[in-house]
Structures are given as structure tokens and as C-alpha cells.
Amino acid sequence: MKQIKLPISIKTLLVLIIIPIYLTVTAVLIFKVIPPMPDFKIRNTTAIASDVMYVDNGAELPYLYKNAQGGFSAQPFKLLIFTDTHIDSYLNRLDKNNKTIEMLRNNIESARPDLVIFNGDNVTAAFTRSRAVALAEMMEAYGVYWAPVYGNHDTENITALSRDKLTALWSGYPHCLVKSGDVTGSGNYIINIKTSETTVSKSLIFMDSGEYLSKAEKLALGYDKDETVYDYIRPDQIQWYTNSVNSIAAQYGSNVKSMLFIHIALPEYEDAYLEGEILYGEMREDIGCSKVNSGMFDAIVAAAHTEAIFAGHDHINDFEALYRGVRFVYCLSSGYTSYDLVSRNGGSPEERLQGCLAVTIDAGGDYSISRITNTIYN
Q: What was the pLDDT predicted at 37?
């Protein structure tokens, strides 16, 4: 039988097919997985004049106060809350990432807050250290105190800083107030706002709501090992919370109330929306809570100390609801590199919800919440 001679060998043909595939996959990995050094286009930062003082003497919970002629001031205390900034700096998202940074700056410089809170999913994706440093240096240049909690995306990438390492890094900056804590997670800590040596106007409680359950944990709880199950507030964290608020009430009086800052919403956020009094906004996506209800809200109700819970995670939910005596608040998503109302539901850029919350606390503990949407800067 006469053999048919091919113009090229099978080996050569395979090489010609495999090499382009390999190069394409490699390029995609570089483009999508490995972010470059940050390019935030940060302008020269001018320090914001602040009369806020921080005391951490080990004898009591750390506290902030406004200074007036060497003493305590009764002036209102202003929080600025960002969430889901997702500073990830992927090659294909640099413009969006730069916009996130510019809007952070616009809001900080306009509001001139006493404390900035980053409520999770702050610096995300791979190789996060350089971006974590850049964010910290920007905040330090402002000279404003800042307090972060962690979300499910902050440390999920294998190349990202772990929670403990991120806390160790950020806590080394003079104006960053994060502490690791002695319970599950990292970033379980409390800061009191004081108006005199013996008077607390508000306690701010920061808790780590975790990332995802491990395969072993999912199987132990009866879930499929490949199912996505968000983490939950663990029993030792709940006990820490209960002990802490009881101690605050014993030291400063039962009239002192607290605010709780977590990234992943509690399951009761859905109950609050469906059964509570709607104060503002809408539920535009399912509540992205854990499937495990560990009883954190029951502890909150029993303690009768926390009057407001602030969560992020669900980018297009923006409602506030009063339920069983507690105000459930969704913070406005602040970043542009992840999904938002326009990318998820369509519409014009003017309908974006990105922004932040401003919370003003007066000397008596009363507070107000206002929303700042970034469209005001367009």
C-alpha cells in the first residue's frame, strides 16, 4: 500500500497546536490572576486637621475623643464608612481601581471625618501586600484614624496576606486601630467614643465574619463539600461580644449603646427586611449570609446593648430596617472593580449606588446616618 506523505509530521502538528494554547492560557493567567504593582494615581495628600485623640493605656478599652483645649469635647463625632472597595488592581481593571481610590479621596477630603471605617473586602485578589501598604500610607498621610474589618475576599487568595499578617502590617501604622483579638479570626476589637473621662457616647464593635467554611466543616454540617457556604460568627466570638458589652454596661452604665461592624450580613437581615420597619432602600439581591445561624443576633437581643448593625458584602442592597429593636444597615458599596447595580441589573452610570455612609454621633449617644453617593462628584 502506498503511504500518504503529510506535508508536516504529527509531532510538528501537535507542537503547533499545543504551543498557542499554552501561551494563551499563560497570558490569561497573567492578565486575570496576577495583578501588577498598584497604579493608584494618588495625588499629593494633604493632612486633614483633626482634633481627635486616641488612648490605649491597657487599663480600659481603647478610646477616641475630640480634644478641646487639652480636655474632652462634647462636639459630634463623625464616622465615614466604606465597604467592598475591592482594591485589586488587575490589569484589565486599572481605570476602575483608580476611580475607587479617587472617590475614597473625594469623600474623605469632603467629609473630613473623625474616624474612617473599612467594612471588609478592602484589598483583594492576589499579592495584596503592596496595595495594603499603599492604602495605609494614603490614610496615614491624611492623619485620620481608621479601623478595618475583613471580608471573605480580603485574604482568600493563596498569595494574599493572611488575616494575621494583614493585621500585623496595618496595626503598625499610628492611625490604624485594628487589633487581632483573642478569639476566632482577626480584627475582633472595640473602640469607645468618649466625651469625658467617665462618659462613653458610643461603643464601636468590630468583628471578623470570616470567609468560607472548609470542606471538612461543610461535610460535618451536612452540606455538599463543593457547595459555597459563607463563614459565620463563631461561639467564642459571641461569648467575647456578650462579655464585652456586659463589661461596658457595668463600667459606664446601661444607657451606653453600641454599633456592630461586620462584613457578611447576619441571616436576620432578611427577617428585618421582610418583617421589620423599612427605613430606607431596597433588597435588590439575596442576603449573602451564612447558611449557619450561630445565634449572634439572639445574643445581641439578649444583651440589649447594640442598637445598629452595619454590613457590606451584598453590593446592591442598600436598605435600612428596624427589627426587634435593632437597626439593620447596609453600607453603600464603595468600589468599581466588582459587580454593581449597573453591571448586575443594567441601567445608566448615573444609577450606580457606589459611595459611603456618614454617621454622626452626638455627645448623648444619638446618631444619624446619611448616604453619600459618588455621582455627586461626576
A: 46
H-helix or E-strand containing 129? helix 129-142
pLDDT means per 10 residues in the chain (378 residues)?
Answer: 56 65 59 47 76 95 94 96 92 85 95 98 93 95 97 94 97 97 97 97 98 96 95 98 98 97 98 98 96 98 98 97 98 95 79 91 97 88
Distance from C-alpha of 188 to C-alpha of 176, rounded to nearest angstrom: 14
Burial 41-75 (b: 16+ CB within 10 A, else e): ebeebeeeebebeeeeeeeebebbbbeeeeebbee
CA distances from 226 to 215, 219, 303, 338 (A): 7, 9, 37, 23
Q: For residue 33, what pLDDT is reported?
A: 47
- Residue 262 Cα distances to 3, 4, 88, 265, 289, angstroms: 72, 70, 21, 7, 11
* Alpha helices per DSSP H over 65-114: 94-111
Q: Give the pLDDT score at 32.
A: 46
Chain centroid to CA 125: 14
Residue the block writes with cell 449603646: 257
**Size of the chain, expressed as the number of residues it contains:** 378
Alpha carbons within 13 A on the beta-carbon side of 68: 9
Closest by CA to 266, choosing from 256, 276, 257, is 276
Instruction: Say whether 242 sits in a helix, a strand or coil.
Output: helix
Q: CA-to-CA distance for 173 and 142, rounded, in angstroms? A: 12
Residue 247 to residues 206, 242, 254, 328: CA-CA distances in angstroms?
16, 9, 10, 24
How wide is the angle at C-alpha 122 spanned by C-alphas 260 and 84, nearest 5°? 75
Question: How far apart, in whole angstroms, are the C-alpha atoms of residue 97 and residue 89?
Answer: 6
Domains and CATH numbers, the chain: 10-377 (3.60.21.10)
**Nearest 10 degrees: Cα torsion 172, 176, 181, 187:** -120
Q: Which residue has the cell 429593636?
A: 325
Question: What whole-number distance in Å separates Cα of residue 85 and Cα of residue 74?
Answer: 32
Read off the C-alpha cell for 100.
475607587
- For 33, 36, 269, 297, the CA distances from 158, given in Å and listed in that order, are 11, 16, 31, 32
Instruction: Identify the pLDDT of residue 154.
Output: 96
